[in-house]
């Protein structure tokens, strides 16, 4: 692991581009600047090509012999399959509005992290291979030949994009770099160029049903353990069921929440909520992953991993699916799932809250509801007994996760929940929230340790906005609805804004929620003593 | 000076001179053949590009949502930034096309004393808007050369364009605004280091071309004063497909005319096709309703995935031991 500079040094960022053409600048592939590649074993399991031992710092990447042909044909195939790619290759006017919208550009000053230039990395090859001007005029037309260095550059910069879509908000033509990065990563995958932090979860998810490789008996144990904790804290023990046929609702959430703090507290919040309202639900050990690292690999991989949700819902005979807090999971569910793996089986119905009777018409076809929507509806209808005063020691702000914000538009539901479960809520500056929200800096499979400096750089704008409300209002808790956020924001906060912790929305719900028959709480879900908590708001 | 800028300046200069000289040397070529060829290239090329894009399907519903989704009646839905039906998509598209809605959100930021600071950046939006609208007015005004009698609406446009009522002939705002906005866009391309770094010949060339077209037009109207009646005689003959090339139209006109032809011919093969492409951008022209209405992917592949049965086969013993229900006991 490479040491990273301290925060005061890291923020000295020079945005002046170099003198020479960007086409002549080689990518920096020294240790600490790249994600480790996938292991041969993993690629073989997934049936992906060119499995071998290699490192991005090697001179020779052991590309397949006909690699140029593979890229050319792969590119052509995708141009024919995706209008988005074709249009986005052609219509950019390089106005530069996107340039400083990327968190990696703000944090690194590297011109190839400007979304426009990231796309040009691909466009230059597109022009060379598929346009007449590019073929004839070459560099004058902004075209260049596909060389091993171009492939290295792609690997470097398309794994410095978190597919957060912030740039696409400002683009006058809606050019979406996420779409371009997804295509580039598919092309790289054809050559066997992929990263372990994405491929391992994908392989795990295929085999065990979840990214972390939690086997069925362990999943039961983990959740049992959460129930022990809840019982100790509240005196009430939730009784979740697993793989139970005939349940009304199947609950699916990212496995990260079962695995590590502070996501575990969010999971406890879910269990407490379901207990409080007496929801007829079950958890599957097979479809035990809400997230989908296939999204960061290829559309085929995304589809295969996502297919388990409907497959399991059908087998169990549930009426609808309730989804937990996760960012990219909701991009897949909102924009891909029904198209890829729908329509749903005949037993599924338009989601209807059994507690409030609310019909979720906006999920009529996918039959999958976000838990923030579900809980907001419960609160609105007065179905939850809440003591927000229990969260009074917290000054909370809210981080909109990229995908729920820009690939769904779920902005006010979580805010409504927050305002009902805590009394001190402060928004970050408007340029940094809602559709303009900044990525955590570690999304799209880049939440790996070996690129910690890059992650701290990418997270700078987010952290800086948190710092603003930390300094101004004393904010000490950053809430979010994303499992990757819960894993990566704590180190980001420790680095840039010490003194701010991270929580999921439903951890705050769990703390405020009064369960029938519970005893007086002495601690919150983190086993931290509640000072004046009980009834503080009354 | 970078090569992209150099090539573009040289190209526009040479093209202008070719037009200037061509008018006196080969008036029929420059007055008839090239203009017709340019128009054919423009229309055929434009249609070909649009068809080329439309040929590729839209497999997924991928709008960029820029506001609150439609969910509950008690949560204010941001209808036009996150449309959920075709009507609201249409409004979103109209806002994009006529008001550059997304670009209006633009800000700029810098890091000052350890803080990321966001500042207003209205200029690109404003000059972009001026550029496009003044170009439109100039185009509409030029219809006077191809129509007889001149429609009343066109006269209204001309009247508004000359509303300042300064000078003789009266100043028409659009030409100057077009030139000014084009020069602004050019200047920001060379003055902002990041924008200069990303700029290609394909960026400098069209803006310089349009600026020279505006410049030569202004020269003709206010300074060199071409014989407008002869010009109209010629343009009307082109419009009625009975071309004649009158004597005595100056080289300046031919320079202007040739640059316009180059613009039309170049248009479909350039980034100027953003004018057609914007209609087809899937992040803007689709409703965010894919949870409510299933979107169909025409090439949706059938793929083998790890089914529950596969999973149970692998973990059956452990599942039984953990007390989990199984489909098959053995």
From TrEMBL, chain A:
Per UniProt, the keywords (alphabetical) are: 4Fe-4S, Electron transport, Iron, Iron-sulfur, Metal-binding, Transport
> GO molecular-function annotation terms?
4 iron, 4 sulfur cluster binding; metal ion binding; oxidoreductase activity
Q: Does the keyword Plastid apply?
A: no
For whether the record's keyword set contains Lipoprotein, the answer is no
Which branch of life, at top level?
A: Bacteria
What Pfam families would the database entry show? CCG (PF02754), Fer4_8 (PF13183)
**Residue ranges occupied by any 4Fe-4S ferredoxin-type domain in the UniProt entry:** 83-112
Question: What is the protein name stated in its UniProt record?
Answer: Putative sulfite reductase-associated electron transfer protein DsrK
**Native organism:** Desulfobotulus alkaliphilus
Automatic annotation (TrEMBL), chain B:
For whether the record's keyword set contains Transmembrane, the answer is yes
The membrane topology of this protein is: Multi-pass membrane protein
Q: Which residues cross the membrane?
A: 5-22, 28-51, 122-143, 163-186, 207-224, 244-267
Give GO BP annotations, semicolon-separated: anaerobic electron transport chain
Task: Give the highest taxon in the source lineage.
Answer: Bacteria
Q: Which residues form the NarG-like domain?
A: 128-274
State one Pfam family annotation.
Nitrate_red_gam
Keywords of this entry = Cell membrane, Electron transport, Membrane, Oxidoreductase, Transmembrane, Transmembrane helix, Transport
Provide the protein name: Putative sulfite reductase-associated electron transfer protein DsrM
Per the UniProt record, the lineage of the source organism begins with: Bacteria, Pseudomonadati, Thermodesulfobacteriota, Desulfobacteria, Desulfobacterales
